[in-house]
Design goal:
It is built from 2 helices and 39 strands. By secondary structure, the chain is mostly beta strands. The strands form 7 sheets. Strands 1, 7, 8, 24, 29, 30, 31, 33, 34, 35, 36, 37, 38 and 39 form a 14-stranded antiparallel β-sheet that branches. Strands 4-23-32-25-26-27-28 form a 7-stranded antiparallel β-sheet, with no helix packed on it. The longest helix has 10 residues, at about 375-385. The protein is elongated and about 105 Å long.
Length: about 475
């Protein structure tokens, strides 16, 4: 018998998303994500986020990256500071007191309140504010010079402009929508505690906002710029084969998509390519359906709806010459034929850079891009696990969105087969490799040519061979994975 003495030559064999540099396996350099928003923004808890900093927020217990269209709050002093400076009382029995932690509005008459005078167009506006009942009547409303509807805490809409808010010491969201049929200046928009009753009513207020939109976006005192997130395609995304998996949590139900203002009636989840329509990869929602495209000139669609706050798991897998598949919550809902296309230099997440005005208006979470078309079973298993998507050897980019834009990725190397015939009967041997501290996780495997599965090795451990086994005619092969975890 003879000893096994074999040094693996990394220049020989198969590399996937790895390079050999100075005799070592390495992940190639890939650029970090780029986020932009040319203004401050606020999280749902009221904390301010600086311009061009990502806004990580929570919807129904899920932390992710908020990507919203831009908006302008038409109110001045929407926090009602300085005793409601900029707000006019409707009578002598209505006022704003901002001496405490939060300002409150005091009213005594049936149609009392404070108001601002605005110039409004012939379109739909949405008014929102957070209130907490302080004293007296717990009805509240807001007068619009047009037909309106109102709701509290995203409940059912009620025609009119008066609603009862729970008197439980908690903050509650009130939304009112009104449609104007003619444009006019001098429109008065009221905040009216106790609307419809003749008695004292006091409510604490914060974050009053009126927008020229048929839905409410997050609060801003002034103008909030639209948000963008891009990642590189080089070393990440290929037109020939791949998989995109992502979680989307919408701020609104799907009926609002069609109501989007001009240029915002598509809500975009992922986009790449070099030209609209002809060289494009898209995953977006429009007109009651999910739209997907991998090259070509037309979309494949799947009709479905969603509610605000739904946790929607989306996956798009493709391989040229085979097929492309769309999955929703692990279930394959569409199969179509992909076409070759120019992938471009960047991919956009939560918006489309090719169609720059479209945003997803919600949270993006747990995005994984792979360099192969994952199977139906893999995608279903990943969804059913309920766990964050792992970094594996096929992951070219993974973003967790858990408070930072750190990204993970992986790759693998498979050696040639090495002939063991001269060894004869196997005597226990040990295998060693060198790995850099504080670098990517390195996993090493081996198998004989008559073994179907890889066996993971430990550094300094033994090979997956039975002691005394005759190795005449046998060959051994090694596999290494580098995983940059996040």
């Amino acid at each position: 018998m003879a000893n096994i003495k074999q040094t693996v030559d990394l220049t020989q064999g198969t590399l996937s998303n790895l390079i050999v540099e100075d005799g070592k396996l390495k992940l190639p350099n890939v650029n970090a994500p780029t986020f932009t928003r040319g203004s401050i923004a606020y999280k749902s808890d009221g904390s301010q986020v600086a311009a061009n900093q990502p806004r990580f927020d929570v919807i129904d217990g899920v932390l992710g990256l908020m990507v919203e269209e831009g908006t302008t709050n038409l109110f001045t002093n929407p926090r009602l500071l300085n005793n409601g400076s900029g707000w006019s009382p409707n009578s002598a029995t209505a006022w704003v007191n901002s001496s405490g932690e939060y300002p409150y509005i005091h009213c005594e008459q049936q149609w009392d309140g404070v108001y601002q005078t605005l110039s409004l167009y012939a379109t739909t506006y949405t008014l929102t504010y957070l209130v907490k009942h302080k004293a007296g009547s717990n009805t509240i409303g807001s007068h619009f010079d047009g037909p309106s509807k109102i709701r509290v805490d995203r409940g059912a809409w009620v025609d009119g402009n008066i609603i009862t808010v729970p008197s439980d010491g908690n903050w509650h969201l009130v939304e009112i929508q009104a449609t104007y049929y003619t444009a006019a200046s001098g429109r008065k928009v009221y905040l009216q505690p106790g609307r419809g009753v003749t008695e004292v009513s006091e409510f604490y207020f914060k974050y009053a906002q009126i927008e020229q939109k048929p839905y409410a976006t997050s609060f801003i005192d002034g103008t909030r710029a639209a948000e963008t997130l891009t990642i590189p395609t080089a070393g990440v995304l290929s037109a020939s084969e791949g998989t995109i998996e992502v979680i989307y949590i919408p701020n609104f139900d799907s009926s609002k998509v069609a109501l989007g203002s001009a240029g915002q009636d598509w809500w975009w989840i992922f986009g790449a390519g070099s030209a609209t329509n002809t060289n494009e990869l898209r995953l977006a929602y429009n007109n009651g359906s999910w739209h997907v495209r991998v090259g070509g000139s037309s979309d494949t669609t799947y009709a479905t709806s969603f509610a605000a706050g739904d946790k929607i798991s989306l996956a798009l897998a493709w391989k040229q010459g085979v097929n492309a598949r769309l999955f929703i919550n692990g279930v394959k809902v569409a199969t179509f034929t992909p076409s070759n296309f120019n992938i471009g230099t960047i991919a956009s997440i939560g918006y489309s850079y090719l169609w720059n005005q479209y945003r997803c208006n919600g949270l993006i979470d747990d995005l994984r891009i792979s360099n192969r078309a994952r199977t139906d079973a893999e995608i279903l298993a990943a969804y059913q696990s309920g766990q964050p998507l792992p970094v594996d050897e096929w992951t070219t980019y993974l973003l967790r969105f858990s408070g930072a834009l750190n990204f993970g990725r992986g790759g693998y190397y498979i050696s040639p087969q090495y002939d063991l015939s001269t060894v004869g009967s196997y005597v226990k041997h040990r295998v060693y490799w060198q790995e850099d501290a504080d670098k990517e996780e390195c996993l090493v495997y081996a198998k004989l040519d008559n073994q179907s599965d890889w066996t993971q090795l430990t550094n300094g451990g033994s090979l997956p061979i039975v002691e005394g086994q005759d190795l005449t005619g046998r060959k051994i092969q090694f596999k290494a994975k580098l995983l940059d975890l996040v």
